[in-house]
Amino acid sequence: MFAYEIAATRRADLIRQADAYRQAQQAKRARRGAARGQEPAPAARDDRNRFTTVA
Which residue of 2, 13, 26, 29 has the fewest CB atoms within a 10 Å radius of its CB? Predict the structure, then answer.
């Protein structure tokens, strides 16, 4: 009986962790979607001249 209780507790813990992960991913997607309409993304830097060519 004790092993069953440990397994049931572990299962409940895994379900809680999965739910928290799903909520975090959903919030991340919502922030990303809300940020898209606010301002354009900055232009990428051109690093070609940053390093010199080797002989």
Answer: 2
The residue behind tokens 């990428």 is: 44
pTM: 0.55
pLDDT for 36 beyond 90: no
**CA gap 42, 47 in Å, rounded:** 15
Calpha distance 32→37 (Å, rounded) = 9
Q: How far is CA 40 from the centre of its chain?
A: 22
